[in-house]
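Task: sequence design from structure.
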């Protein structure tokens, strides 16, 4: 028997017998690997943010934009919410200590944001150098950048256990009663919304909700385009207009056109219906593929904020045809009928 199995013919026979089992095992592993992948998605403005914090959304976005970190606007607002307790405090980001001053020395909220964002940028830069995860950077806003070195030396990924261990280490070293907030990451993330990539929201009052979005946008017809704008006070850029209008029906979109594209379910031109998004590329040098977004309103037109201002745009225009990137849907305004 042994000679049969390990002869040339025997090996072929053995392979034929075992091959199906190997294939089945590989498929199971692939399924488990796919099933355990964390869902991808985009950060959005959290619904639990207070008005005292939301009033600084544009200022935070503008400060982050200077470092090309504007996609982190929801995260920084969540940090602000945690640091200020959602109140109208003056040092809204508790940034005084990051520049060597006693707590709450800063008394100008805008300056607090500028200092806090500058510190946040340094934290992210160090995170990049050390190769640690984003949660480590978030925890470091509370613990200080030494926590990143600690995590880098212990696997490179934040965990509640590592945060607790670092806190205890600092207590022993400094002789304090406590050190920082070991659960800071969880406390910050409760103020961040998420939108799974490709998820389409079915709303109970789809038709009425479309009218709310459409009429919200329509009231800004003729307003000028403002890069970085996201409210009537400053006017809007393309993605800021979408964020403002969709928030009126309880849908919090990511901040940039690229992130809104990532979050949308991709559809074809034939499936396009009013309320869907149309994306464009190369409209300016943004360092990313998707640079502009408009909302389709029917009859070959979209409503958008572009260099010519806010209003209706003819999609048959040669410029927009040449820069067309794709179509996406985040809310199904058909009420389940069609696309």
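Answer:
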């Amino acid at each position: 028997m042994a000679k049969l199995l390990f002869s040339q013919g025997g090996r072929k026979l053995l392979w034929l017998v075992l091959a199906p089992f190997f294939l089945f095992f590989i498929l199971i592993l692939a399924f488990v690997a796919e099933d355990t992948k964390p869902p991808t998605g985009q950060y959005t403005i959290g619904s639990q943010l207070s008005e005292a914090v939301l009033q600084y959304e544009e200022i935070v976005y503008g400060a982050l934009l200077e470092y090309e970190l504007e996609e982190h606007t929801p995260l920084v607002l969540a940090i602000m919410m945690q640091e200020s307790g959602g109140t109208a405090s003056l040092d809204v980001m508790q940034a005084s200590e990051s520049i060597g001053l006693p707590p709450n020395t800063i008394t100008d909220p805008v300056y607090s944001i500028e200092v806090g964002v500058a510190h946040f940028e340094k934290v992210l830069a160090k995170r990049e150098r050390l190769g640690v995860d984003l949660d480590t950077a978030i925890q470091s806003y509370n613990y200080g950048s030494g926590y990143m070195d600690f995590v880098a030396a212990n696997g490179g990924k934040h965990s509640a256990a590592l945060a607790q261990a670092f806190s205890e280490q600092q207590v022993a070293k400094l002789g304090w009663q406590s050190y920082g907030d070991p659960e800071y990451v969880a406390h910050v993330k409760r103020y961040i919304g998420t939108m799974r990539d490709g998820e389409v929201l079915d709303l109970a009052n789809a038709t009425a909700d479309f009218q709310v979005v459409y009429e919200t946008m329509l009231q800004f017809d003729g307003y000028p385009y403002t890069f970085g704008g996201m409210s009537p006070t400053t006017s809007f850029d393309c993605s800021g207009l979408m964020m403002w209008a969709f928030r009126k029906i309880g849908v919090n979109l990511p901040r940039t056109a690229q992130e809104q594209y990532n979050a949308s379910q991709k559809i074809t031109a034939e499936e396009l219906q009013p309320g869907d998004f149309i994306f464009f590329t190369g409209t300016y040098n943004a360092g990313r593929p998707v640079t502009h977004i408009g909302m389709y309103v029917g009859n070959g037109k979209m409503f958008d904020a572009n260099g010519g201002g806010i209003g209706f745009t003819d999609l048959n225009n040669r410029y927009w045809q040449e820069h067309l990137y794709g179509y996406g849907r985040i809310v199904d305004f058909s009420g389940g009928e069609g696309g």
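Residues 1-7, 13-40 have pLDDT under 50 and may be disordered.
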